[in-house]
Structures are given as structure tokens and as C-alpha cells.
Write a structure and sequence with these properties.
Keywords: ATP-binding, Cell cycle, Cell division, Cell shape, Cell wall biogenesis/degradation, Ligase, Magnesium, Nucleotide-binding, Peptidoglycan synthesis. It catalyses: UDP-N-acetyl-alpha-D-muramate + L-alanyl-gamma-D-glutamyl-meso-2,6-diaminopimelate + ATP = UDP-N-acetyl-alpha-D-muramoyl-L-alanyl-gamma-D-glutamyl-meso-2,6-diaminopimelate + ADP + phosphate + H(+). This is UDP-N-acetylmuramate--L-alanyl-gamma-D-glutamyl-meso-2,6-diaminoheptandioate ligase. The protein has 450 residues and is of the alpha/beta class. It folds into three domains: 89 residues, Rossmann fold (3-Layer(aba) Sandwich); 206 residues, UDP-N-acetylmuramoyl-L-alanine:D-glutamate ligase; 132 residues, Mur ligase, C-terminal domain (Protein-Tyrosine Phosphatase, Chain A), CATH 3.90.190.20. α3 links the parallel β4 and β5. α5 packs across α8, α10 packs parallel to α12 and α13 runs parallel beside α14. The longest helix has 16 residues.
């Protein structure tokens, strides 16, 4: 079968393309944002990429078109699909019908940490010989690929609350029907489709409704919004996690930056995680992965051993260069809480060394100006925060300066690079934070500093 995918370079749709190729289908796709690492991954899989959305991209007469949720009516390729009467489906529905049927699905949901936790859990299963299938919204370094079909009854998936397609406004995760469900956390996000936090809670409640009574839900004890969701109705056992507290599953920090911690189940020591990751958010991610792994039969001590060899995900505080006393990081920041927790972990790791955060507020929620004060406050652990304001931003980022004194606004990438060249003489840690390509600043900055 010839499957054509619209929005193929998105992390989710790109993963679908890889799995469809592994199922033996001919796969092509189009996107207006074709850049690494996803474009490179797809080309290595023998998938034909077309840049831009045009009706002629469909002249190959595909048997099925999978339409990504970033596309809507008015898009020329979407209009051609409808006008030509081609078969089409959303990505989550195709995955549910052709891959997840009869699988033990382990779904990882939450505003933050989905990609990292899904990667951890997939790696634990892999380390123990389970050979799981997975679909991850990033490229885990332990695997070097964001998705695979696998050769077992287990499939680990990043369960996103974003909508499925222009013709299916349900959250993606409603399609997946997990037996093991991790609910990492819940905050207001995706302001372009959800009017308020209660609307997101309702979608999470719909997810909870699909988890069987013999399944398992895993969530942090202290997350009030997740607790609200569970109070709306829950028919499944719930395992709670905590840090330095007394939940059923607890992490006792040895190092304050989260690089070493003991794991306790029912107050019984299970082992010590020692790894390269930092931040309490990653400690919570690890705990959830350990609990989920136990649900499929992996002992905590074996999961802990696997995490000791976990290499994280591309673009999650990935060190991309060290040049003349400056360490440059690439971090996939999309929300103020993610920025805050990441910088907190780095601060605890590097002490008083200089940290400069360079932020492109690219997610729909930040571009709409929903998180003005919280965005400013999230940058408190940086000695300097440089925020990129392109012409089409829609609101004046200068408002951030009302809430923090360490913020500078730049309207061009050239201004940012020139400022960083000046700051580089003092050394430190430059954290580039964006969920997009950031105009290619990653390589340009390295070239300039060299």
C-alpha cells in the first residue's frame, strides 16, 4: 500500500512514517518545515520527502493519506485530498487500528516529560530483552530512532493531549487505550485549542476512562490537577510517586541535582539510580518508568540498572559543543515549567558558574502570550536570559521585563549571536531553548565562537 503523510516531519507523524515503512508500505510525505533530525531519520528509512504543500504531491495516487493535526481546511494539499475523494485518516486512528490492536500499550501522558519518560521506559524494556515497539516525540540516543514496530506484545507510546486532526478534535491519547498509563503532570498548555485548564482535565478524564480495571495508572502524589482528574472518576488502581516524601513509590535524593537518588517501594529500598541526568522532573520521570516497568514484570532493581545506562533524548539538554570555556546545550523547551525545571537542574549541577538562557517562544501557548509572568519567572536561575522576538510574534516580549531583571529582548538572530560572542569571553553555559529549528542558530553560533 502507498501511504502519503501530510506533516511528515513532525515528531509524531515522522514516527508513524517509520512504522508504516517497517510494516512494508511504500511511504511518502510532505511538510513545509523539513529539517534535521527528523528529515535525516526519514531519508535514512527510504521515505520520499516533498517540501511544501501542493496538490501535485498527490499525483502518485496514494492508497491512503494520513493527515497531521497541524493541517487544516484551506491547505492546498488537504483540499486536494477532499476534492479527489482520497481515503484519509488521522495519525492516532491509523496507529490504533494497524499497530496497537492486541498490544499491551504503555502510554505516557502529561504536560511535561512525555518524551523523556517514554524513552526511559522503552529503554528499560529493551535492556531486559522485551524488544518493545515504541513511538516517541524525539530521538532517544539509546536507540537512534524515534519509532519502531518492535517484535513483542508491548508498545510504549508518548500519549499527547493535543487534538488528532482537523476532522477529529479528540485528544490523540483517547485512541491508544493503554493498559499501563503514566500521568506525569498537568498544566495549562495548547492555548490554541483548549480554552482553559478544565477543558484539558476533561480530556485526561476521557483517557482515564479507557484504562482497564486490571491496568495501572501512575501519577505524582503532589499534582493537584491530576488528582482532580482522578476524582472525576477512576476505575483502575493508582500508584503514587513522590520525592523525599512517603508515597508508595518514593525517591530519596542523595544529590540535590537529582543525579543520584534511592528508590523506595512501600518504604523498602530497591536500589540507587546514578546517571547523567539532572533535575527533580527527571527523578519523577524515572520513578514513573520504574513503576510502569514493574507492571509488566520487570523488577525495580533491573529497571534501576537500565536507567544507569540511559543516554537521554536528542534536544533534551543535549550538549552540542564545548568551545573555549563555553558549553552549548540544545533543549526542546515548550512551556515555562519545562524551562524552570531544566534551569533549576543545571544550576544545582554547575553551582555559581554563569548560565545564559536563549529562548525562542515558539509553542502556540507562549506565542499567544498566555504565560507572560510565568515565562519571566521561569528564567530566574539564569544569569542572563535572551528572548528572541520575531516580527510576527503578536505581543511585545518587553512586558517580560516587568517581572524579571535578567531579561534582554532581541529581534534578530544576528543580534543574539553578537551578544553571545561578547558574553563568551566570560565562559559559562549557553542553553538554546526552542521546540523548533531556531533559525539555524545552533550551527551558526558554533561557527562564530570557533
Amino acid at each position: 500500500m502507498h501511504i502519503h503523510i501530510l506533516g511528515i516531519c513532525g515528531t509524531f507523524m515522522g514516527g508513524l512514517a517509520v512504522i508504516a515503512r517497517q510494516l512494508g508500505h511504500q511511504v511518502s510525505g510532505s511538510d513545509q518545515n523539513v529539517y534535521p533530525p527528523m528529515s535525516t531519520q526519514l531519508e535514512q528509512q527510504g521515505i520520499v520527502l516533498m517540501e511544501g504543500y501542493r496538490a501535485e504531491n498527490l499525483d502518485g495516487k496514494p492508497d491512503l493519506v494520513i493527515i497531521g493535526n497541524a493541517l487544516s481546511r484551506g491547505n492546498p494539499e488537504v483540499e486536494a485530498v477532499l476534492n479527489r475523494g482520497l481515503r484519509y485518516v488521522s495519525g492516532p486512528q491509523w496507529l490504533a487500528e494497524h499497530v496497537l490492536q492486541d498490544k499491551w500499550v504503555l502510554g505516557v501522558a502529561g504536560t511535561h516529560g512525555k518524551t523523556t519518560t517514554t524513552s526511559m521506559l522503552s529503554w528499560i524494556l529493551e535492556h531486559q530483552g522485551f524488544n518493545p515497539g515504541f513511538l516517541i516525540g524525539g530521538i532517544p540516543l539509546n536507540f537512534g530512532i524515534s519509532a519502531r514496530l518492535g517484535e513483542s506484545d508491548f508498545f510504549v507510546i508518548e500519549a499527547d493531549e493535543y487534538d488528532s486532526a482537523f476532522f477529529d478534535k479528540r485528544s490523540k491519547f483517547v485512541h491508544y487505550r493503554p493498559r499501563t498509563a503514566i500521568l506525569n503532570n498537568l498544566e495549562y498548555d495548547h492555548a490554541d485549542i483548549f480554552p482553559d485548564l478544565d477543558a484539558i482535565k476533561k480530556q485526561f478524564h476521557h483517557l482515564v476512562r479507557t484504562v482497564p480495571g486490571e491496568g495501572l495508572i501512575i501519577s505524582p502524589e503532589c499534582d493537584a490537577n491530576i488528582n482532580d482528574v482522578l476524582a472525576m472518576g477512576c476505575w483502575t488502581p493508582v500508584a503514587k510517586t513522590s520525592i523525599n516524601s512517603d508515597a508508595q513509590w518514593n525517591a530519596q535524593l542523595i544529590n540535590s541535582d537529582g543525579s543520584r537518588f534511592n528508590v523506595q517501594m512501600d518504604n523498602q529500598e530497591q536500589g540507587c539510580v546514578e546517571w547523567s541526568l539532572t533535575g527533580e522532573h527527571n527523578v519523577y520521570n524515572a520513578l514513573s518508568a520504574i513503576v510502569a516497568a514493574k507492571h509488566v514484570g520487570i523488577l525495580p532493581k533491573d529497571a534501576i540498572a537500565a536507567l544507569g545506562r540511559f543516554k537521554n533524548v536528542k534536544r533534551r539538554m543535549e550538549v552540542i559543543a564545548s568551545i573555549n570555556g563555553v558549553t552549548i546545550y540544545d533543549d526542546f523547551a515548550h512551556h515555562p515549567t519545562a524551562i524552570q525545571t531544566t534551569l533549576d537542574g543545571l544550576r544545582k549541577q554547575v553551582g555559581q558558574e554563569r548560565i545564559i538562557a536563549i529562548v525562542e517562544p515558539r509553542s502556540n501557548t507562549m506565542r499567544l502570550g498566555v504565560h507572560t509572568k510565568t515565562l519571566a519567572e521561569s528564567l530566574g536561575n539564569a544569569d542572563m536570559a535572551i528572548i528572541y522576538q520575531p516580527e510576527a510574534m503578536g505581543w511585545d516580549l518587553g512586558e517580560l521585563k516587568k517581572y524579571a531583571g535578567n531579561i534582554e529582548i532581541c529581534s534578530s538572530l544576528d543580534d543574539i549571536i553578537n551578544k553571545l560572542k561578547f558574553e563568551a569571553r566570560y565562559g559559562g553555559h549557553f542553553v538554546l531553548m526552542s521546540n523548533g529549528s531556531f533559525g539555524g542558530i545552533y550551527q551558526r553560533l558554533q561557527d562564530e565562537l570557533n
